[in-house]
């Protein structure tokens, strides 16, 4: 008798565990909950049939996936792992919305910086324009022709 060597599936089903047992590599005896979960959701014999239809190199992933999905279905009998997927999609949507809002804010701030720089340049231009006008207009009164003609007119009157 190899009772102590039986896998979790064969222990659960109270049968002898053959040396080529399809469950044995994926449902070890030290983790009985793993087989109990897939057995509860899919039925032990269905799990065995699925594993047999799949190439050996994919059976570990398949067993992990079945166990994960079974646990999800036990925790959330209505949606199972679809509930997790839709929650994650919602998180992605919310994060994308948040990202778009932040990118909009960044664009707005960049525009404000550009406008502030433009205003500063405009102010500088206005100042230099005023300065130029002042410099240009200041000599104008001193070069007023009447002031230059006046001394000439004075000797003419004398
Ligand atoms: Zn077995």
Automatic annotation (TrEMBL):
The keyword Coiled coil appears for this protein: yes
Similarity comment text for this entry: Belongs to the LOB domain-containing protein family.
Native source organism of the sequence: Phaseolus coccineus
Residue ranges constituting the LOB domain according to the UniProt record: 5-106
Stated name of the protein: LOB domain-containing protein
InterPro entries with a match to the protein in the record: LOB
Keyword hit for rRNA processing: no
Coiled-coil zones: 85-112
Superkingdom of the source species: Eukaryota
One protein family per Pfam: LOB
Keywords associated with the record: Coiled coil
